[in-house]
Every structure is written in structure tokens, then in C-alpha cells.
Amino acid sequence: LVSDAAQMEVVADRIAGHFGKIEILVNNAGINTKSDRVPIHQYTIEDWHRILEIDLTGVFTTSRAVIPYILKSHSRSGSEDATGRIVNISSIAGLVPLRLQSAYVAAKAGVANLTRSMALELGPEGILVNAIAPGSTLTRGTKALFYGDDGAYTENAASLLSHIPLGRPGKTTEIAAAVLFLVSPDASYVNGSVLAVDGGWTAGYTRDW
User: Fold this and answer.
1) Is the residue at 206 inside a domain?
2) In a domain? residue 108
3) Which 3 state secondary structure label does DSSP give 116?
4) Which domain holds residue 147?
5) Is the residue at 134 inside a domain?
6) pLDDT tens, position by position, for the chain (209 residues)?
7) What is the DSSP letter of 154?
């Protein structure tokens, strides 16, 4: 597991040994299943720890293991030539809390602020740290949540998508494109940002009031 500090140190050492250096880290591991969506007073301690350990502690332990290798490989500290990059995957749930997902929203909000703290600490060392906050995204794991057997959006999906100005879920390629931007030279002055890739969900209300 990514929350196993000793295991992550072994992984980081092996990657650095195989490739010679590490310049980029993307903390992408995360879980949030439908069965977890209960009021906070019904949440089990086991579910709380399971989600927090992977979604938040995993970012800490993996970063802790990899950062020393990035420090060894990047260019001049705090300069335009700095090549170190860390991208953490948060969620819009970390920016705008959702109901019945207390562990997930707590973890992803933690990732957002951990990202900012890391940016303050590592920016002077030439490592840029940012986060992506995806909205509802269509993946193999979420496909059943969006589409019924007839190929049409489910009732729950239609309700969810009504809050998104673009009216559709995101694609994994769109999330990947945002990550690629943040690790590219084009993002050389972007540090401590949490970029929402959500079709406009967090921009505001989409309905008339």
C-alpha cells in the first residue's frame, strides 16, 4: 500500500536505481466506493482509516520517500531551470464538500492543503508542487454509476450532471492533459495551485434561483 512508508522507500530506491534519477512524482492513488456513502455517525472506524490512509497518508509517505531523489536530480534551486515536479490528485470534493462522504472529503481537502504546504517548503528547493481537483470523471470503475443497461444516463447520473455546465463527465485523458501541463516547462511559474478540472462544477450555480 502507498501508506506503507517502508514499502514506498523501497519502491523509490528501485525506481531511482533503474532509471538513474527521479524528476516527477504524481500521487494518484485514491479510493471512494459507493458503499462508503453514509452519514458520519454511521461511518465505521475501519472505513475512515482505510480511505484516509490511501487518499491522504499515501500522498505523505510516497512524497517523503521520493523527494530526496528529486532533490538530487533537479537543476538549480529556485531557478527558472528547476525541473522537479510533484502533482497530487485531490478532488472537487476537497474544495466543495459533498454529503455522505466524510472520509473522502476530509482526505481530499487534506491533499489540497498539503499540496500548498509542500509548495511553500519545496519551491525554494526548485521543486514545484501542484494539485489537480477532478470533477466527476468517467473511468472503468465509475462507468456503471453513469450508464444503465440501456446505455442512457442513470437517474442519479442525470441529476449529478445537471450541476456541471458542460453537462457531461470528464474523460481520463482530460485529467491526464492537466497533469502533463503541470509537469511541463510551460508550468514553470505555477506552484501551490489546485487546478479544478471539473467542467465548471465549482464555478457556481448552474440553475436560476
Assistant:
1) no
2) yes
3) helix
4) 5-199
5) yes
6) 899 999 999 999 999 999 999 999 999 999 986 666 899 999 999 999 999 999 999 999 999 999 999 999 875 544 566 689 999 999 999 999 989 999 999 999 999 999 999 999 999 999 999 999 999 998 887 887 788 878 788 888 888 888 899 999 999 999 999 999 999 999 999 999 999 999 999 999 877 76
7) P
CB 202 within 8 A of CB 140: no
- Answer yes or no: is 207 within a domain: no
Give the H/E segment covering residue 132.
strand 127-134
Categorise residue 50: left if φ over 0, alpha if ψ from -120 to 50, beta otherwise: alpha
Instruction: State how far the Cα of 185 lies from the Cα of 176, in Å rounded to an integer.
Output: 16
Catalytic choice (43, 69, 104, 153): 104
Residue with grid cell 481520463, as numbered in its chain: 172
Nearest to 134 by CA among 55, 59, 195, 57: 195
Answer yes or no: 104 catalytic.
yes
Grid coordinates representing 82 are 528547476
Cα dihedral angle (188, 189, 195, 199), rounded to 10 degrees? -80
Q: Which amino acid is at 28?
A: N
**Crossing angle of helices 45-52/102-122, nearest 10°?**
30
pTM of the model: 0.92
CATH of the domain at 26: 3.40.50.720
Contact between 60 and 121 under an 8 Å Cβ cutoff? The reply is no
- Contact (Cβ atoms closer than 8 angstroms) between residue 128 and residue 135: no
